[in-house]
Design a protein that fits this description.
This protein has four helices and 23 strands. It is an alpha/beta fold and 253 residues long.
């Protein structure tokens, strides 16, 4: 197995010939120009920390200048961080609570797209990563992701409409490190991705559910708290346990 880094960004950030300032700029806005970098720094320094309705209003006014697109009015609370903002799209009436992170890094990906009326709870992290084509995250209308959840994509994470993800949800599409060679650090061995994750519409994931790479959770399914989903789940299933097993079909009496 090759020892080459599994992301182009990783190579750039570990290159000793590149200054720390340039590495920071790469981490924050990628290959975007200086104008976006400066505006991003000013936004996160001056506008992101502002409390109350005044801060909410100012962020609503200036976010369309920072992000790739906003499709209507959005409500973004204090201390929300946007990285690689030129690859982030927010739909109408999106609500993002305090201290969330939306990080759309990746090579050749379209980044992060939130549909209309999506809600992200406090401290939630959406993170993209990966070589070309990099991972992306697409979240459908009226989906609610509760506090302290992590959605990470090295290939794709697609979440449908009307999905509920309870607190401390962990959805990881990719990032399965190979560890076949004991003479090479695991971090240097190429990741093995299984195609990403698809969560179809009208799904409810209970608190602390973990969804692994290569999984599809079918429409209308419910996954019980603390379950580990390693295999795909058919439509309208109820699944529980570690690993998660289907115990009921919601359409059967």
């Amino acid at each position: 197995m090759s020892q080459e880094s599994h992301t182009a960004l990783g190579n750039k950030l570990t290159d000793k010939s590149v200054s720390g300032f340039k590495k920071y700029r790469q981490l924050v806005v990628g290959d975007a120009g200086w104008c976006l970098f400066i505006f991003s720094e000013l936004y996160h320094l001056l506008l992101a920390p502002l409390p109350g309705a005044f801060g909410l209003l100012l962020r609503q006014l200036f976010l369309p200048l920072l992000l790739q697109r906003t499709d209507g009015k959005v409500a973004v609370a204090r201390n929300v961080v946007f990285r690689h903002p030129q690859k982030i799209i927010l739909g109408d009436q999106v609500m993002i609570d305090e201290s969330c992170v939306l990080d759309a890094k990746g090579e050749g990906n379209f980044g992060i797209q939130l549909g209309n009326q999506v809600v992200l709870g406090r401290n939630t992290v959406l993170s993209c990563k990966g070589p070309k084509p990099g991972g992306y995250i697409r979240i459908g209308d009226r989906t609610n992701i509760a506090m302290n959840s992590v959605i990470h994509s090295e290939e794709k994470v697609e979440i449908g409409r009307n999905v509920l993800i309870a607190a401390y949800g962990y959805v990881v599409g990719g990032g399965n490190h190979n560890f076949e060679r004991a003479d090479v650090p695991i971090i240097d061995q190429i990741s093995i991705n299984k195609g990403g994750i698809v969560i179809e519409e009208d799904v409810w994931l209970g608190a602390r559910v973990t969804v692994g790479d290569g999984v599809t959770i079918g429409k209308g399914s419910v996954v019980g708290a603390s379950a580990l989903v390693k295999d795909s789940i058919p439509e309208y299933s109820v699944a529980v346990g570690v690993p998660a097993k289907v115990v009921k079909n919601r359409k059967e009496s």
